[in-house]
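Letters spell out the chain; the tokens describe the backbone. To illustrate:

===
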Amino acid sequence: MTVKKFLKYNRKKTLIGGGVVLLLIIIYTIFLVSGLPSLEQLENPRPELATKVYSNDGEILDQYYIKNRTSVTLSQLPPYMVNALIATEDKNFYNHWGVDVPRFIRAMVKNIFTLKLREAAGASTITQQLARNLYELKGARESIFGKITRKIREWITAVQIERNYTKQEIIEMYLSVAYFGRSAYGIASASQIYFGKNPSDLSLSETALLIGLLKGPGTYDPFKHFERSMNRRITVLNQMAKYDYLNEKDEKTAIDDKPALIPLDEQLRAGIAPHFVEMVRQELIQKAEKYGFDIYRDGLSVYTTLDSRMQRHANRAVEEHLAIYQSIFNKQWNWKNHKDELRQAISMAIRTSDIYRDAESTKRRDSLARTLKKNQAFIDSVKKIASRIEVGFVALDHTDGNILAMVGGSEFKNFKYGLNHVTQISRQPGSAFKPFVYTVAIDNGYPPCYELLNQPVTLMMAGGKRWTPENFDHQFGGKFTLREGIKESINLIAIRAIMEIAPVSTVIQYAHRMGIKSELPPYESLAIGTGEVKPLELTAAYGVFPNEGVYVEPISILRIEDKDGNIIEESHPTKHEVLSKETAYLMTDILTGTVDGGTGARVRNYFVRPAAGKTGTTQEYADAWFVGFTPQITAGVWVGFDNKATHFTTSDGQGGRAAAPIWGLFMKYVYEDPTIAMPLQYFNPPDGVERDTICSETKKLAIPFCPEKEIEVFNKKYLPGECQKHTGLKEGEENKNIIHF
């Protein structure tokens, strides 16, 4: 081969090789650019932000998130936090343009000499770390090529961030998105999770611990590696002193100040109102399609109706009462005497278990059922769950429908998306339904002193069956007024009322109008509460009485704001006038009798201010109720069991014993709380209505309140034999402004 041919041949190979290299560079450049954030993303970064749920008095109840992240501004941080970050993570932060080249070269040389190819450990600037956290920079982490690609993308993105944002904005974004371990993204979430504080309240020592976590949240987790975490905290403080952000005295003080972490068991607990928060979450998901937001990523602020102080009082009332009542029930209930109930409970537990539902065939399910029925550990767990007393408690401001407190179950401290016994169960209310029957009678002209026979009746029911209802004490005879009938919860008076003066169809109509949304059976047995209702709807319906005949739809969310504070939705009460003021007041006055000496008298063991309400007890003591109200708050309590085969076995299962004390304790704690400062109010009659204590038809006292000895009720003294004063009407006179009781 001649020299000329050789040169020509090599030139050809060189051109081909150069073309291949150029093509590879173009392909790699396209690949490199494809993994970079767009210009729009750089100018408007959208980190995933947690949605915060606030109580009506400003407390954070909970957060919804995929990444528990909350944005912050420098004004929300203590001044030493930024100094700690810069001294530890990027001492040249204010002097570089996104990439600290000398620092990177030093780190690479160190890696080469130690024969380790790492990601230039310690070389990433705060801006590079932000680029890594803020954008999903693509690149295979496991390969050398992938690491180099991702690092180049990180550099380019860091430079672009520096061109678009000020140093202050970069620090703010970094501290809002950085991962601190324990599902905490951002300093705001981290300070709450580790210390239960806002970032502005962190001490220097606490700040140093959190900044120290950035090097390795798992490595320096203070709960798993306490000493290692404390030493890392000292390193951060040393770095601050080294770069003149801290003097020697302050450094020593901070080192000696050991941070007090929130105990792990408190972190794992649900918040103070888990059932309420879950209800709000479900409402937000329904609204998400309408407004186009993502509750897990968009950093919404949700302001709710709940009062955190009242919620704590509700939790306390439930916990105190059930601690006593569960012990009483455990002594009374013996599974040996309830073998049929146990078989039902075991069968239900098997059918609803995940392992049974996920079984591939009927044969496999049958085999699992046989195995579980012989498994003693499984049987013991069923017994424990089936015999656990459950509770549903809700308190409302009946004037605006605000849900003030909610306890959706007895296991509220360890709530894991379980059943909400305020909104997700339907149970027979028993005698707690009777006020709707009497409301129909009162609203249609029958006075509270109207008398009905307390005599047995026999009714033909569907299918030709005979129904002969009885009173709770199996006693009957004589006549009783409507007022006496509801005070003593006499079944036969309520049943005769629905038969003679308050037709079933009209009772159903009134109940629905007053807020009962559940379907009700069109039978006379409805008078003693055989139709199933939800605790929330029953409680809201009772709110009509103290609210002068106006029904207000219960609400849980007051306002929803986006991450910038713009209002997305604002709620307003939905009100309907469903009763006259006069009827509402008369029913209120009648229902005070239940509390003042009637079936709900145990309320008075705890609460002595004006109150009214009604107990409810169903067959075999399966469900116990008390729903009542003060002039300011309406609250309802249901106590029972998830397993309907389990029930109370003695009169301890009555509403007045099992449910009313929770109501009384709650009201006691609320009205005694000086931070709530609930004023003393009374049930005042509407304008133009006067009290007439003599019933115009029976000549009986409509308010049978003649004490045998001197007593004081609501700051008013009553002497022996002293009754309410008569209006002064002469016999035969009429006054339309007087409603005869």
